[in-house]
Amino acid sequence: MKLFRRSSSVVAALLLALTSVLMGAQQAAAAAPAYVALGDSYSSGTGAGDYGDSGDCKRSANAYPALWAAANSPSSFSFTACSGATTTTVISGQLAPLGAGTGLISVSAGGNDVGFADVMTTCILEGEESCLSAVATARSQMSSLLPGRLNTLYATIKTRAPNARVVVMGYPRLYMLNGTCIVGLRESERAALNAASDQLNSVISARAAAYGFTFGDVRGAFTGHEICSGDAWLHSLTVPVGNSYHPNQDGQALGYLPVFRARA
Ligand SMILES: CCCCCCCCCCCCCCCC(=O)Oc1ccc([N+](=O)[O-])cc1
């Protein structure tokens, strides 16, 4: 009997050891969760090159979602972000991969809902009054139209991927004020665009918090690397014109990626 007790405790100890070895091995082998990257051109990586066969969506191999996936081996990776996307087209065109098994989502959206491209075009082609007026219109849409649009997007994401951690990424300020630029927009226009970026970030951050999502604020990461900084991580007006006012490779790898990595 004594012998039996002794051997059974030996067996129990062996089982415990074996179990912890197996669990340790399991933890080591566990991949990052299934990851879906949603959003507009700041997430697709327009401006960062290497778009493969992604067509007009301009999904870059150098965009932060692709860089994160390459470094973290998620169990699956669906990259549906698309240049020009609004909250509405994210819902209608990007959510197919979402499901109960989705563990991680990144998303940037809202800039195109308030006319980002139109505002930039107006500021380049027209005078100060038109530019400031276009910025003012965009800012009024940020408080009137955008919160409801973001609510609809975030509620839909939550319903379609109830178990996911959702990281909502913001946008950088575009300009370093009193910087090195000798041509381009007026200082008043640059300041107005920066203030618009700040308002856009606050609206998005507040809506994200209301849904229990994490907000990735990239403004700090881009500080010192805005247009007119001399070490810009954003394209100024450039050719091809679609790259203008978008993060370059450094903006994705050194601006967006570390902020997302810290929140993923
Ligand atoms: C929003 C009013 C102007 C305020 C300036 C704020 C600057 C930072 C905010 C940037 C927001 C950009 C989000 C949109 C990114 C995007 O998808 O850009 C486009 C890319 C491509 C197209 N397009 O039509 O091909 C249109 C838009």
Task: Sum up the structure in keywords.
binds 4-nitrophenyl hexadecanoate, 264 residues, 10 helices, alpha/beta, 50% helix
Description:
This protein is α/β, with parallel strands linked by helices. The protein has a single domain (35-261), classed as SGNH hydrolase (Rossmann fold). It has helices spanning 2-29, 41-44, 64-72, 87-93, 116-125, 128-144, 146-160, 187-210, 219-222, 249-263, and strands spanning 34-37, 77-79, 102-107, 165-169, 214-216. The chain is globular and about 55 Å long. It starts with a helix and ends with a helix. It binds 4-nitrophenyl hexadecanoate. 4-nitrophenyl hexadecanoate binds at residues 40-42, 46, 83-85, 111-112, 114, 116-117, 119, 138, 171, 174, 193, 196-197, 200, 242.
Q: Compute the number of structural domains.
A: 1
> What is the number of helical segments per DSSP (H or I, 4+ residues)?
10
Instruction: Please indicate the percent range of residues in DSSP E strands (runs of 2 or more).
Output: 5-15%
At CATH level 2, the architecture is: 3-Layer(aba) Sandwich
Order of helices and strands: HEHHEHEHHHEHEHH
Q: What's the overall average pLDDT, rounded?
A: 91
Question: What's the gist of this structure?
Answer:
This protein is an alpha/beta fold.
Summarize the SSE layout with pairings:
Elements: H1 2-29, E1 34-37, H2 41-44, H3 64-72, E2 77-79, H4 87-93, E3 102-107, H5 116-125, H6 128-144, H7 146-160, E4 165-169, H8 187-210, E5 214-216, H9 219-222, H10 249-263
Parallel strand pairs: 1-2, 1-3, 3-4, 4-5
The protein binds 4-nitrophenyl hexadecanoate.
Residues 40-42, 46, 83-85, 111-112, 114, 116-117, 119, 138, 171, 174, 193, 196-197, 200, 242 line the site of 4-nitrophenyl hexadecanoate (PNR).
